[in-house]
Structures are given as C-alpha cells and as structure tokens.
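[job 0412] stage=complex_fold ligand=dioxothiomolybdenum(VI) ion status=START
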Amino acid sequence: MTVTQSEAVEERATGTTKYVGQSVDRLDGPAKTTGKARFSAEFPYPGLTYAAVVHATISRGRITAIDTAEAKAVRGVVDVLTHENTPPMKPVPKGIPTSMNAVFSAMLSGTSVNYLATDEVHWNGQPVAVVVAETPETARYAASLVRLTYRELPATLDFAAEEPKAEPQKGGLMGGASTDKGDAPAALAAAAHSVDLAFSTPPHNHNALEPHATTAVWDGDRLTVHDSTQGISGLRKHLSQRFGLPEKRIRVLAQYVGGGFGGKGSFWAGTLLAVLAARATGRPVRLSLTREGVYHTVGGRTPSTQRVALGAGADGRLTALLHTSVSRLGQVGGMPENITGSSRHLYACDNIQLRQSVVRLDLLSNTFMRAPGESIGSFAMESAVDELACELGMDPIELRARNEPERDPVGGKQFSNRRLVEAYRVGAEMFGWRERDARPGAMRDGRWLVGMGVATAYHPQMLMPANATVRIDAAGKVVVQCGLHEIGVGAATAQAQIAADELGVPLGSVRVEHGDSDLPQAPFAGGSVQTASAAAAVVAACAKLKRTLLGLARRSAASPLRGRRLEELEVRDGGLYHGGRGQTYAEILAGAGRGHAEAVIKANMLGFVAKTVRDTRRYVKAASGAQFCEVRVDPDTFEVRVSRWLGVFDVGTVINTRTAESQLRGGIVMGIGMALSEQTLIDGRDGRIMNPSLSEYHVPVHADIPRIDLHCLNEPDPISPLGVVGVGEVSITGAAAAVANAVRHATGKRVVDLPITLDKLL
Ligand code: MOS
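[job 0412] stage=complex_fold status=DONE, emitting structure tokens
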C-alpha cells in the first residue's frame, strides 16, 4: 500500500505534533490534477455567450468612425458594442473620496478609462469595441471585421528620450517620498572609494498560466461575476461603483485563479467589459482574454533608469549612498513604483539621498508586478554594492556585513526581525562560497567560465484586516470561512493547517471556504499580506470557538471539563483535555444537544489601525534574504547559463515548507527571467507591443533553471500573527543582481542594462 504524503503528515500529526511548519500537500491538488477545479472561464450557464475585444491600433487620438456592419452580419453574432451604442458605466471614482475604501478602489482601478463610453484613445491596444457571439470563434472572427477610423494625435512613446524630462514623484500607493539624511553628494565627492553607475531596466509583462477571464451573469438587478482576480471584495466594491449597484447584490467568485503576480490585483477592462456586455445583451457573457489581449489591457512593470552611487572608506564602511530612479506611467491611471524604497533600510550610512521621478507616456500604465519597485530597485542597488566590493578588493559578503545596520538607517527604528548576516553566513557555508576565487575569470569548468555572485533580497511586510468564521459540527468536521484567494500558492492549505493546530483536530477534518465575496472579507492576495493577515483572523476565530465549546461543556454536570479554564487545557485529539480527562468537541456538542458551534471574527478596524500605527512607529518589518547564484558563461559566445542557486530567507514562521519554498522558488525563477531574457518591446513609432506572446516574450523554461536550493531561518517575527512574514515577493528581489554579479565575476564585465543578453557581453 502506498501512503500519500498527506496521510504520512496526518500520522505524524496525531498526538502533539503540529501541522504548522511541515511539508503538507496542497488541499486543492486533487481537484486541480483531476480537472475538477473550475476556473473563471469554465462555468457553464444556459444561454452563455462569448465576447471578443477589438483593440485600438493607434496610441493617441479619437475614433472618427466605427463600421460594425460586416461584423454584425456574421451568423452567430449577438451584438457589437461600441461607444455609440452602449449605455455607459459610471466613471472611475475620483476627486475627494469620502472613504478610504473609495481611495483604494480608485487607486486599484487599473486605468481610469470609461470603456465604450468615449471616443478617446489613450494607448495602442485600448479596448474600443466588444463583439458578443454564440461561440468564441465567431466572436473573434467578427472582431477582426470591425473597421475603425481615427483622427490621430501626436503621441509620446519613447521612454529613453523622455526620461531626462521626468518630474519628481508625488506620493503614490507604493510610497516614494524622497529621503535625505546628511549630505550624500558632498560625502560622495569626498569618499576615498566610490562607484557611480547608471542602470536601465525594460518593461515587463505578467504571463500567468491562466490569461484573465470573466464570466458575468445578470439576474434582474443581481450580478454574479466569476473572475480571475486577486481581490474579490475590492472588485465587488469597484463593480458596485461602476454599475451603480449595492454591494449586497453583487457576488464575485474566484475559487481558483491560475496565477496572478500582481496582474490580477487591479480591475481591468476584460472584467468590466464582460459585465457591461452581459448587461447590454441580457445574456451571460464569458470573456477570456487572449495572451495578446492581456498585454493590451493589463499594465505590466514600469521600465526604469536608475543611478546608484556609493562612497566608502578603505575599511568598506559606507559614507555615501545615493539612489535615484525614473519610472513610467500612462496618461490614465497607474501608480508610481517605489523603486528606491528598500534602499532606506539596507545599509548603515550617515549620508543617504533617495529620489524618484516619473514620466507620463501615451502607453498603458504600469501596475503591481511581483515586488513592484523593489525587484528592479534591488537590481541596481545590489549590483552597485558588488561593484564597490570589486573596487575595494573586498569580499561582497564581508562588505555587506561591515555595513549591516543595528537599527533602520533612516529614522533609527528597531527592526522587528533582521537576520541578514546570519542568512549570508548560513548560505556561504551551504553554497561553498569559500571555494570562490575572487579574480574575474579565474574559475573554469572545462571551457566554461564560472562566476559566483550574491545579492540581498528585501521586501517590506504589511498586514491588512481580515475576517473569518470557524464552525465545527457534531461529527467534528471544521469549516473555515474566509474570503481569501487561492491564486496557486496554497493559501487555503496554510489556513487549514493553522486551524487544525489551533483546534487540535486532524487536517483532513478541516475544509477552507474561500474565493467568494459572500464569505467574511479577507485582504487581496497581494503585497505578500494574505497569509499573515488571514492567520490573525483564523487564530482568533478558533480561540473564540474553543471558549464557546468549553462554555457548553461546563454547563453539563457530567463533563470532566466542568470548572476548568481554557488556559489550563490541552487542545488535542479533536477536543479539550485536562491531564488524561476531557471531551471531544463532538461529545461536547452532543452533550449540549447542539448540531454545531460557530465563532465569527469581524476585523476590529480601530484596533487594527491602532496596532498598525503603534507597530510602524516602533518597528521596521520586512522579509529578507541572501541570494547565491552560480553561472557558467561561454567564453566565445557569452551564452549565460545559471548553474546553481541557493536562497536563504528570513520570512518568519514557515507555515508549510512545501508551498513556501515553492513560492520562493517561483520568485527566483522570475528573477532569473528578469536577469537574462524578459523584456517587453515597444515600437517607438506607434506604441505597439511587438512581442505580446510566450513565443517572443521569453520567460524562463525548465531548461533555463537549475536546481534551486532554499533554506528558511524559520524564526518567528515577534510582532506578526503566528510570527509569519509574507513569502510571495521577497525572493524576486536581489535575484537579477545575483545573476549580474555572478556574470561580473565570470567575465569581469558589469552589465547595467537588463536583460543580460549576449550582445552586452561580447
Ligand atoms: Mo503582488 S505584485 O502585490 O500581487
């Protein structure tokens, strides 16, 4: 008989062993591998129709005519919707919003275009018409027959040409206040040793396995939307605002989402157009974007230019740290990325200057993409630190250790958790760093040049308020209800592990309901906040449930728990025990004549805000890590192969080693893509994206990725729920720099413009 891993874990977990901290199979694994798991484009409805989007082919201007006659004449076309015939949505809320929710909703709105209500075109690819038909093929074919005439206006498209005119950034959701400590320019000029480097990074696009899809169904004045979103409750609020419908009449469902990476964190055209088309046609509508459609309607990562200048004494101690960035926005929507944000926290230095500027171009605005800002900012900063190590003739790990701050370098707050030096020490040992011959090109494997590089990973940790309900029935089955998102990371499995431990029940008896806006509201699956935020609510709900159950037991004269307080009890084997005596929850419920018991936790907003304010006054909190990369470089063609990788991370308590490592590994893969191959190419003449497909936008494939070793220090963060620090984003930070630094070691060449392609090394 074969024992599944879950069963093995189950056995280990009887008695006092806990699920938290173990390697547990994802609970959604069987549903996904058998095809039972339904994604947004897979829900059948009677009378379902299919939508296809017509995209603008100019960057800026006005539509002067839309000829839909030929498209409408195709058999099976239900309707062709344009700004001439579609009742408009309400505009994106702006001005002075009355609530934080409205601010958030406006910021998350992707773009502020009122689709199909305007003849204005703001970027090449903007949706300008939607065909609804009886089959997807008909819709797509008919969409190709819609003829548009435009009056074109001059467009500004070239980031490199415009970047010198960038304006200082004002605020933004992701931060970006400029920082001044001491006099960094003067200290740089006076420094005994210095580096001053200019970097550039290209635009990047999300390529989730599941392209964005929506199934929208109106039933009178009720709306049901299946959507591949990272934020069901935010989307419900946005739909409520755009369609003038109370939130209680809208249900957003996203039980499974096939990858997000930030690209499904905002509200994009595909979702809105599906809802609009369903309202206009009176039929259920499924709109599944093509891969090209995703590039046209979902903002990716901003390109950047950056400068990092560092000054140091001969002992390696930093005397000056300057980091400036220019990023790009579109004309409508978007938010500046906090590219220099982490540079406040990394190195002890008396003179720090950080600046961010922005240009607006006639292109689709950026959005969240895994560690927005930090991923590209860390490429520049960590490349520059490595170059300074070369300049000083000092080991790059030693250089970082000498500049490790005791407190936050700007402002002097305590770090709630900070184990970077330990991460490097453990990593150096595991990776065999001492074998490294520091001279460029000195290490060979046959004809291949070998390079070893390190870089620091850093991503700030946030929390958001969450709600949860936990119920247990007479058979001892537990249901956790929490509107969190399963975007492929094992989020629900993690909460099931937590609930099983808190209640002392087998994992197999816990079910987590998620991905439904009718459930208690959880934060969006972004900013690496979801697991820790939801954990706070689930732990609180379990505690409340145990008190309720103990209360029921104490009412019975026969209960061995009579007179006991929860604090003196052991929680195990599906019940509450004192010494050898106690009762299972099922026995308690039976004794009380109850079918079930339930505990509801509603986020205490005031309490949450008060604690957050207290914590952020005192602490700087982040996930961090040490990235170790080894490359092989062909000495003639300069082909770069990543040959080994180790990431050592400080991410607090690890709930599930398997899924946490999987996320960390995924971020490193994305970082290797950023380092070596990924770039969105834009035609400077018309703003057209030239490579909107997986065949031409090169994400790494299996053959590009070596074995990736991971080690988590696994020390609980003292102020996070269960000590958890998010793992979703930290591991892409520093990854591209680790590759660049390894390439520098192998070849002696510092590549400052991503991606590191052969032409830049020859
Ligand atoms: Mo993430 S880029 O906040 O989904």
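The mean pLDDT is 94.
[job 0412] exit 0
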